[in-house]
Specification:
By secondary structure, the chain is mainly α. It has one domain. It contains four helices and no strands. It is elongated and about 45 Å long.
Length: about 120
């Protein structure tokens, strides 16, 4: 039950990231969150959308794992996609913003631990 909630939370976080990068990239709220100017956002909207699409694949994998069941066939799928989120979060924290460590990496690591421990 805890694992389902945490994996769902990670999926919801990434849905927010997908929307921010693919839909709302040039809005003042998202520009403030990412610390970008209007000009930078306009010039990078295609790159941000591409990055958002990759995050959508992470969401799809996590939802797939939940659909199959974390105690069954979905468990290895959850392991893989949560590990991908963790690696992406570590890279993002090292190259872009330490905040990513708390927003993306920590929830995914807790979710992976919960799945591994079958909580």
């Amino acid at each position: 039950m805890i694992a389902v909630l945490l994996v769902s939370l990670v999926a919801v976080i990434h849905i927010g990231i997908v929307l921010a990068e693919m839909v709302w990239w040039e809005t003042p709220t998202v520009r403030r969150a990412f610390g970008t100017s209007a000009e930078f956002a306009a010039n990078t909207r295609v790159l941000a959308a591409n990055q958002g699409l990759y995050n959508a694949f992470l969401v799809a994998g996590l939802v797939w794992a939940l659909f199959l069941g974390l105690a069954g066939h979905g468990q290895p799928i959850a392991h893989f996609f949560l590990a991908c989120v963790i690696v992406a979060g570590l890279f993002g924290a090292a190259t872009a913003s330490r905040r990513i460590l708390y927003v993306q990496t920590l929830p995914a690591a807790l979710a992976l631990l919960a799945v591994l421990l079958r909580l």
